[in-house]
Prior knowledge:
This protein is of the alpha/beta class. It folds into two domains: 8-126 and 269-278, Rossmann fold (3-Layer(aba) Sandwich); 129-265 and 290-326, Dihydrodipicolinate Reductase, domain 2, CATH 3.30.360. Helices cover 33% and strands 25% of the residues. It has ten helices and 16 strands. The termini are far apart.
Amino acid sequence: MGNSTPTYRTALVGCGGRGMALLRTADQINRIQFVAASDLNGINFDQLTAAGIPVYRDFEQMLEKESVDLVIVATPIATHYRVAKQVLSFPVTGLYLEKSMATRLWEADDLISRAEEAEIFFVVGHQLRYTPSWASVKNMIQENAIGKIGYIRAHRGAALLTHHTHQTDLMRYYLDDVPVSWVLGQLHRDGSHLSEGLESEMQALGFVQFENGVSGIIESGQYNPSAGNHLMLIGEKGEIRVGSGARFRNVDTGGKWQPLPQHDQPHIFESFLEWIEGGEEHRCSARKGRDTLEVLLSIYESCHQRRRIELPLQERGNALEEMINEGILP
């Protein structure tokens, strides 16, 4: 890739619905060329073959045979660590790994260490940082639309590690990824509950104290009636609701609710290439994804230890798994 506008030979691992969506998104960038795809179960192979993309059942065999610069991994969350670890053993330039990056903190740290040692650019798929309807709130905050933020609340009717990771990550993005001081959490589960094949909580509640003084509430799981999928931010001059029922109000609107303005956002994969080529760190770099995972795992750990958890988190595993194995939760 010695010319000024290199083409990045790209491979997809995991060709289900999410993987194909990522392929279509990445394919919007002219400098990204898909040269191979792999899926253990052969999902969507007919479609990929019709597009002229070679397919493999074994992703390691694919990476051994094909010359690849970028790898996009969209396999089930329980496989993320194992698959990403193997990808990072190949001479690639960049790895895009779907969220959450792992299910245990030691796994996330190990992947980051391997990527740094191999000088591989590593991104985790918290793509809402680039989605205009969500990311534009960051622009509003920078424009001082609601003044100094004091409180932020995130709700999503899904499990923490599989889906609420997006909303928790947005909390951190809106607050410039400021560190968290401590987390207090509780879980509910009355039997086996699978989310994307992962044993998960049915409901979760977390209080997050950020170092800058902002207080955050994380609500996860099914409620009746549904509270929707949204974040609420309250500042000294107004408030913002983004997601379901999106709107804002402040002193300039006279306290009346108004639709959220939209701001153009860069393309998530174009920004990936720019980072590789010496630009600013990607909004979804792995270290940011790791810190979001730490907050979620701290909710589990708080429930396990029945106390608030100071960060950085000292426990490196997954306390939900431990509570299930110990019979504390069914």
